[in-house]
Design goal:
This protein is α+β, with helices and mostly antiparallel strands. It has 3 helices and 4 strands, in the order ααβββαβ. The radius of gyration is 27 Å and the shape is elongated. It starts with a helix and ends in an 11-residue tail after the last strand.
C-alpha cells in the first residue's frame, strides 16, 4: 500500500541529488578556471559565475535531501500506523481505519522500562511474557502515559 504522499516525496529527493551534482560540477569548473589564472582579477569571474552558485546549489541540494528524507520517514510511519489500526478485510474490501479503540479489556498492563500503560488485549503488549499488571501507585505517580492505540482509561482498573 503506497500512499500519495510517498509518490510526492521522490521528486524532492531526485531534485536534491540533481542540485548536489550540478553544484559539484560548477565547483569543479570554477576551481579549474581559477587554478589556470595567476592574477586575482582574472579569478573573480570564475568565482562569481561557477564557484558561488555551485556552493549555493550544494546547500540547496542538502536541504532538499534532508526535507525529502524526513518527509519519506513521516510517510512511512503514517503508512505503518494505518496498517496497525486497519480492520481486517471482509468480502474483498480494503481495510479501513478503526475509529474505536482496538482493545476493550479492563485489565491494564505495562512493559518494564516502558513509558505507556495498555489494556491487556492491546496489540502492542498482547502475547508478551514480560508485560506485567500496572500498579495503582505507578498510575497515580504519572510515570506512565496511556497508550494511543488502545486508549486505556484509569477507570478500567
Amino acid at each position: 500500500m503506497r500512499t500519495a504522499r510517498l509518490r510526492t516525496v521522490h521528486p524532492v529527493l531526485w531534485a536534491g541529488w540533481a542540485a548536489l551534482a550540478a553544484g559539484a560540477v560548477l565547483c569543479v569548473i570554477g576551481w579549474y578556471g581559477v587554478s589556470g589564472e595567476r592574477y586575482a582579477e582574472r579569478q573573480l569571474p570564475y568565482l562569481a559565475s561557477c564557484t558561488i552558485p555551485g556552493a549555493a546549489l550544494i546547500v540547496a541540494g542538502a536541504v532538499l535531501l534532508t526535507h525529502g528524507r524526513g518527509a519519506l520517514a513521516a510517510a512511512r510511519v503514517e503508512e505503518l500506523y494505518g496498517l496497525l489500526v486497519a480492520e481486517p478485510a471482509e468480502d474483498g474490501e480494503s481495510g479501513q481505519a478503526v475509529t474505536a479503540p482496538l482493545a476493550v479489556s479492563g485489565d491494564l498492563l505495562m512493559v518494564p522500562g516502558g513509558t505507556l500503560w495498555h489494556r491487556a488485549d492491546c496489540p502492542l503488549v498482547a502475547g508478551k511474557a514480560e508485560a506485567v499488571p500496572v500498579d495503582a501507585k505507578v498510575l497515580a505517580g504519572g510515570e506512565l502515559g496511556p497508550c494511543p492505540i488502545c486508549e486505556p482509561s484509569e477507570e478500567t482498573d
